[in-house]
């Protein structure tokens, strides 16, 4: 009598792997939804909320956010990293390509089109100004990294001469100050400010200060970027 063929284990393994992959995708999607819900809460009323509120407003149980992220501090850290990464992805490619004026403009464009993300970032940044804020050092480092990225970009594109007391470090500080100031004013006043006109004016000012951006073939080779600045 011919023996029956046994069920092949690899097929079961394939189904199990597919099931696990689907579970991982579902978890990633729900985590993203929780973080998005938190961004909305921050944009509306600041970071004074509970993890239970995040779960409910995101369409999950009140315990979901706590189960996924552990503590409120860890959850807020993930929210902060998510928003900052979204911002970074918009302007950093221009800075790396030694186009500081384009990077400046891209940042303002992100703030104006980031829905609740841009507002949430500036609310968290403002809350970090308090002396006892546990996030103050983290945002100071974020500010420093932003300035350093612009400083390197400016250093590699500068054309023309500047006064002796002016250097790329202080130019970057003033440039980031312009970014922060314009963004905060627009977030406060909304349509009362013509942001497109402001962006055009800022570009004109920066072109006057930095000179025309060199053509690609005239640009110097970029220096290696430190991992701490990425």
Helix content: 55-70%
The tally of helices reads 9
How many β strands by DSSP?
A: 0
The poorly predicted ranges are: 213-230
The succession of helices and strands, N to C, reads HHHHHHHHH
Count of domains? 2
* Helix/strand structural class: mainly alpha
CATH-derived architecture of the largest domain: Orthogonal Bundle
Backbone CA Rg: 24 Å
Percent of sequence in beta strands: under 5%
Under CATH, the topology of the largest domain can be stated as Tetracycline Repressor, domain 2
Which class of the largest domain in CATH terms? Answer: Mainly Alpha
Rough shape?
A: elongated
Average pLDDT confidence is 81
Description:
The protein has 230 residues and is an all-alpha fold. The chain has two domains: 8-70, no CATH class; 72-229, Orthogonal Bundle (Tetracycline Repressor, domain 2), CATH 1.10.357. Helices cover 69% and strands 0% of the residues. It has nine helices and no strands. It has helices at residues 9-45, 51-57, 64-69, 72-96, 100-113, 116-127, 136-155, 168-189, 195-210. α4 (72-96) crosses α5 (100-113), α4 (72-96) packs across α6 and α5 (100-113) packs parallel to α8 (168-189). The N and C termini lie far apart (69 Å). Residues 1-21 have a biased composition (Basic residues).
Keywords:
230 residues; single chain; 9 helices; mainly alpha; disordered C terminus; Tetracycline Repressor, domain 2
